[in-house]
């Protein structure tokens, strides 16, 4: 980057000073692998040391300036008593840049550049930094303004000396930084956006650079690190599956199991058994390289953010399909799509929030009627070609008869309407609608969707559950935002009915489901179950999540909202006032206080076996056979299709259990 371009971009920036530190290191003291939390100036003023910034090594003797960007790795080895200042800042552009400046900024990232030099005139620079350090502690608003003015003077002096001395600058190795960061923080809830933000780059830029240098995505690499560490723990320890999942960065043991199986071909429990048997038969210590199952290369983009059962955060893996078109062609296609989207007459789209989507079975006649009605409606709508759908993001102009639909998370509702999408977000194994969507293109998790993968499907309508995904995709095609977490089932179906021109069909779905609910209530009442309490739990030996709302999933909506059954008083008080998904985390010792007549336990592979647990077996509902195991996959979603299946299962199990007792 040319120095005059560097100065030009600095002139456009607004700066905030985040911190300044005055440090003294003793001879032989080390500062190792310090990850810069923001763009930084390191200015040594006394002594000597060896400095390394992302592998770029420099010798600092007395006065020396070093600049690095957020996420750069700093090492200092003091050879004698070493004194230096460390100033952190953040620079942003307060006003829109001209196109040429935007391109220049994207290309060079001036606040992440690495460079170092020994100034010819060191004292002016020292004067500014020492003054900033003196007034930093307890600085008021006026002092903060003074600090900012001193920084600009420091910067002016530094750039002036750079220009005089002709110092070259080097871009940081972004990929090396990302790999080091993921290796060090894989146990945390990392996402592509979080990693990119930490390194001060856009997620798209980081992903592109990472793939160019490694052939895979950042999150693909992260998951490989996690799976390998999980394999070591599975074979080298007797830790519970929940503990291993949390140790490698997954709060949801069910999701961890799916990811592990996707990478190794076996579930964690099966993997542990097979590999331990093999090790015993071959009589050699475990080495990861010797795993017979191996960790095959997926060749896919997989992002994750664990689904925390207790906190009710949605999660999953995102699989980006590898684009077969040349990069330039894809870029041109995306640019053309954005241009056409911008030129469309007044098209406003709506995004999406979290997700609870499900559909009903037993509505074959209604579906057939829906298809018949849709044909007539479609012919009539084709005359107008489009229609307007009011959404939370404004009016959206959609095709009168959409043919290529992409649906994220709200899958069961759409399936129940008789619609076959061309692309969907990842479907959990065992979901009620899994078979119906088995041959549909999977785009990965809805919250980490790849716009290019969606664009490649050439959709004419997109359905999303969050504002974030709406903003990512709204320029590709008309996009309907369905804020499912603030809508009732009826409101959600009504909006989707408008989007597809199937208002009558969606009303029929709702009417049929409500009729089945009333029929189920009568069956339960006849069996003497209507006034029995039901507790819904999820977890293991150390801790249980006891569901305390109607919005948590795991059958809570069916039991507490539609069947209008009650929980024990200790929970029912919370359910009556809960406005969002919530639950109590309780120990096994306290759990009996939360269970009276019936208990439903969310069931998934790898969950703790409680058959030998004394406290668990002492609970009357468990001891007397009033325990129902409900599949996590079936109960995860709350669309009309899944709710219908959950209703059938829960009522059938309650009646069967009551008949035995």
Give a written overview of the molecule:
With 661 residues, this protein is α/β, with parallel strands linked by helices. It has 4 domains: 163 residues, Sandwich (Jelly Rolls); 144 residues, Arc Repressor Mutant, subunit A (Orthogonal Bundle), CATH 1.10.10.60; 166 residues, Rossmann fold (3-Layer(aba) Sandwich), CATH 3.40.50.1980; 134 residues, Nitrogenase molybdenum iron protein domain (Rossmann fold), CATH 3.40.50. It is 43% helix and 19% strand. The chain contains 24 helices and 24 strands. The strands form 6 sheets. Strands 1-8-3-6-9 form a 5-stranded antiparallel β-sheet. Strands 17-16-15-18-19 form a 5-stranded parallel β-sheet, with helices on one face. A 5-stranded mixed β-sheet has the order 22-21-20-23-24. Helix 13 runs antiparallel to helix 18.
List keywords for this structure.
five-stranded antiparallel beta sheet, five-stranded parallel beta sheet, Arc Repressor Mutant, subunit A, globular, Rossmann fold, single chain, about 650 residues
Q: Beta-strand percentage?
A: 15-25%
Q: What is the domain total for the residues? A: 4
Q: From the structure provided, what is the oligomeric state, counting identical versus distinct chains? A: single chain
Q: Class by helix and strand content?
A: alpha/beta
**Gyration radius, to the nearest Å?**
30 Å
Let me know the average pLDDT. Answer: 79
- Within CATH, the superfamily of the largest domain carries the name Nitrogenase molybdenum iron protein domain
Distance between the termini: 79 Å
Low-confidence stretches: 285-294, 296-383
CATH C-level class of the largest domain is: Alpha Beta
- CATH fold name of the largest domain: Rossmann fold
Largest sheet: 5 strands, antiparallel
Strands in their spatial order, largest beta sheet: 1-8-3-6-9
CATH architecture of the largest domain: 3-Layer(aba) Sandwich
Shape: globular
Number of E-state strands: 24
Number of helices: 24
């Amino acid at each position: 980057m040319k120095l005059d371009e560097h100065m030009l971009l600095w002139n456009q920036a607004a700066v905030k000073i985040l911190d300044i530190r005055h440090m003294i290191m003793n001879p032989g003291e080390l500062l190792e692998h310090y990850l810069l939390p923001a763009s930084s100036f390191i200015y040594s003023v006394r002594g000597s040391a060896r400095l390394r910034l992302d592998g770029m090594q420099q010798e600092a003797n007395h006065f020396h300036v070093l600049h690095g960007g957020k996420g750069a790795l700093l090492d200092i080895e003091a050879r004698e008593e070493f004194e230096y200042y460390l100033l952190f800042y953040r620079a942003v552009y307060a006003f829109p840049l001209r196109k040429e400046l935007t391109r220049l900024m994207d290309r060079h990232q001036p606040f992440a550049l690495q460079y170092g030099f020994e100034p010819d005139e060191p004292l002016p620079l020292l004067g500014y930094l020492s003054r900033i350090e003196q007034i930093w502690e307890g600085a008021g608003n006026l002092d903060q303004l003074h600090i900012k003015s001193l920084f600009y003077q420091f910067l002016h002096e530094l750039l002036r000396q750079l220009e005089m001395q002709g110092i070259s600058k080097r871009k940081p190795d972004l990929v090396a930084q990302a790999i080091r960061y993921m290796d060090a923080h894989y146990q945390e809830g990392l996402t592509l956006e979080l990693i990119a933000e930490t390194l001060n780059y856009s997620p798209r830029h980081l992903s592109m650079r990472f793939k160019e240098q490694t052939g895979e995505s950042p999150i693909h690499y992260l998951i490989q690190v996690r799976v390998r560490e999980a394999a070591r723990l599975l074979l080298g320890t007797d830790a519970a599956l929940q503990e291993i999942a949390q140790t490698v960065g997954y709060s949801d043991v069910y999701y961890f199991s799916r990811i592990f199986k996707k990478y190794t071909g076996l579930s964690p429990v099966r993997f542990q058994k097979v590999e331990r048997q093999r090790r015993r038969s071959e009589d050699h210590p475990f080495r990861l390289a010797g795993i017979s199952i191996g960790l095959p290369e997926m060749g896919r983009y997989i992002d994750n953010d664990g689904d925390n059962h207790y906190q009710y955060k949605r999660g999953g893996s995102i699989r980006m399909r590898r684009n077969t078109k040349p990069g330039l062609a894809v870029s041109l296609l995306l640019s053309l799509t954005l241009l056409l989207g911008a030129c469309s007459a007044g098209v406003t789209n709506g995004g999406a929030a979290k997700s609870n989507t499900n559909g009903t079975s037993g509505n074959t006649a209604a579906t057939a009627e829906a298809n018949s009605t849709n044909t007539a409606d479609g012919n009539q709508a084709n005359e107008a070609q489009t229609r307007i759908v009011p959404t939370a993001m404004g009016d959206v102009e959609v095709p009168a008869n959409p043919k290529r639909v992409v649906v994220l998370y709200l899958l069961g509702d759409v399936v129940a309407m008789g619609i076959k999408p061309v692309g969907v977000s990842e479907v959990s194994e065992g979901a009620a609608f899994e078979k119906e969507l088995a041959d549909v293109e999977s785009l990965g998790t809805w919250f980490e969707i790849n716009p290019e993968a969606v664009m490649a499907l050439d959709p004419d309508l997109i359905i999303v559950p969050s504002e974030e995904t709406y903003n990512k995709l709204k320029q590709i095609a008309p996009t309907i935002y369905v804020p499912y977490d603030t809508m009732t089932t009826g409101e959600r179906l009504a909006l989707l009915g408008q989007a597809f021109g199937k208002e009558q069909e969606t009303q029929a779905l709702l009417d049929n489901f409500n009729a089945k609910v009333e029929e189920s209530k009568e069956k339960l009442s006849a069996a003497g179950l209507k006034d029995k309490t039901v507790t819904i739990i999820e977890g293991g030996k150390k801790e249980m999540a006891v569901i305390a709302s109607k919005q948590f999933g795991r059958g809570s909506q069916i039991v507490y909202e539609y069947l209008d059954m009650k929980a024990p008083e200790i929970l029912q008080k919370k359910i009556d006032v809960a406005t969002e998904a919530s639950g109590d985390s309780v120990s096994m010792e306290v759990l009996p206080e939360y269970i009276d007549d019936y208990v439903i336990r969310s069931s998934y592979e790898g969950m703790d076996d409680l058959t030998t647990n004394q406290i668990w077996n002492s609970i009357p509902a468990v001891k007397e056979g009033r325990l129902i195991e409900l599949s996590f996959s079936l109960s995860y979603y709350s669309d009309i299709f899944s709710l219908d299946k959950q209703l059938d299962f829960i009522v059938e199990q309650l009646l069967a259990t009551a008949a035995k007792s």
